[in-house]
Amino acid sequence: MSLRDFLKDCEAKGEVVNVSGKVSSRLEAASLLAKYDGGPVVMLQDVEGKGLTVVGGICGIRERIYRALGVREASYFRVVSEALRNPIEPVVVDDAPVNEVDLGSSLEKLPVLTYYEKDPGPYITAGMVVAKDIDEGFQNASVHRLLVLDRERMAIRMVPRHLYALYKKAVEREVDLQVAIVVGIHPAVLFAACCNPPLGVDELWVANRLLGGRLRLTRCNKVDLLVPADAELLIEGVIKPGETALEGPFLDVTGTYDEARQQPIIRVLRVSMRRGALYHAILPGGCEHRLLMGMPREVSIWEAVSNVVPEVKAVRLTPGGCNWLHAVVAIRKQWEGDGKNAALAAFTGHPSLKHVVIVDWDVNVDDPIEVERAIALNVQGDEDLIMIKGARGSSLDPSSSKQGITCKVGVDATKKLRSTKS
Ligand SMILES: Cc1cc2nc3c(=O)[nH]c(=O)nc-3n(C[C@H](O)[C@H](O)[C@H](O)COP(=O)(O)O)c2cc1C
């Protein structure tokens, strides 16, 4: 299953806008992605005459992500949760389209975009990074922004999560960490790489389960890793222990600039691609970025709240909360107090969450007016709020302390049940 298969379907549904004129990779291409943000898929046919089509906005609306995963809104949480628990090993093939064109070890043929004025340089924003645990051999896949430093080097932003754990182990042993960066994959694969199953669960296996067993992998040439065979572009490289460069500042999901930090360097060993490759570019802070970050966390919240309340209808990380800091959760309340338990559970499901509103089953989580109405009619400020001071929140929240400490607030906006005690 490839990105091309998915885009054919989008085209047939009239969801693709083509821009044929020559476009600059510095700011102009990004401004076109911004123009269509949250709408159609955008194909920029000629970025700097590099011969590759730049495509953006693929996952820019929620319904398109549901379609890529083969789910309906009602089944989304359960299907993704099951895929995370029951991944399936993909087949491995020798003859892979991603190897059709060998570009040597240089990044210069790629139409890498510079998005905003203050960016320190061009960034690859839709790169899925695959790496392996040097002892146990399991793979991990995750999405990371990559600042192109020169023709053969990139700086990679690593939040201390799974890839960082693999990197740290390699640094401690003083060995290189091999990496493979894949750009232009089926959205279900990209989505899986944004999920956070426990370390040791290969997100590519999760993707294979989501795609009904139709994901094909292939072996890399210079590094010992398996990557999607039908990807558009593959960059193989190594991270040498101790080699770092300044990465950032860069715009994140909050629409504010993340600070610059010393981050590891990837040295490129080989670049290859499909003939007529499509280069996927994700607009930083745009809908595609926010949905790919937020939607997998909605599943984590759904799982956590389902542990304390039997029926959870829907979870939304809302657009006004940058699809990251604010959630609305609709539950079927059975007992007084369920709303507060649900709020506490939501915070455990998504540690970056700052404010959550719990509503009844019949409230539409996508309608801010319905949610506000539930707050207006059901909430007493001295009874229905929980406040957790001094908790760890999101490093992206500009109002939290320098260490990311924040105050979390849960609002129980469910209706009071009639007392069962007489
Ligand atoms: C467009 C996009 C860009 C991202 N950039 C980064 C990044 O630069 N660094 C990072 O650590 N996580 C980034 N993420 C989030 C991770 O990909 C995500 O948290 C993933 O689940 C981490 O994988 P892991 O559970 O294997 O650690 C990004 C996500 C998206 C959708």
Please name the defining characteristics of this protein.
10 helices; 9-stranded antiparallel beta sheet; 5-stranded mixed beta sheet; alpha+beta; globular; 23 strands; 422 residues; binds flavin mononucleotide; UbiD C-terminal domain-like
Describe the structure.
It is a single chain. Helix content is 25%, strand content 30%. It has 422 residues and is an alpha+beta fold. The chain has a domain at 288-412: UbiD C-terminal domain-like (3-Layer(aba) Sandwich). It is globular, with a radius of gyration of 22 Å. The N and C termini lie far apart (60 Å). The mean pLDDT is 97. It binds flavin mononucleotide.
Structure summary:
The protein is 25% helix and 30% strand. By secondary structure, the protein is an alpha+beta fold.
First-to-last CA distance: 60 Å
CATH class membership of the domain at 288-412: Alpha Beta
CATH architecture of the domain at 288-412, by name, is 3-Layer(aba) Sandwich
Task: Indicate the overall shape.
Answer: globular
The proportion of residues in beta strands is 25-35%
Unreliable stretches covering 5 or more consecutive residues? none
CATH superfamily of the domain at 288-412: UbiD C-terminal domain-like
Mean pLDDT: 97
Give the distinct bound molecules. flavin mononucleotide
Give a short account of the largest sheet: 9 strands, antiparallel
Tell me the helix content: 25-40%
Number of strands: 23
CA-based gyration radius: 22 Å
Count of alpha and pi helical runs: 10
At CATH level 3, the topology of the domain at 288-412 is: UbiD C-terminal domain-like
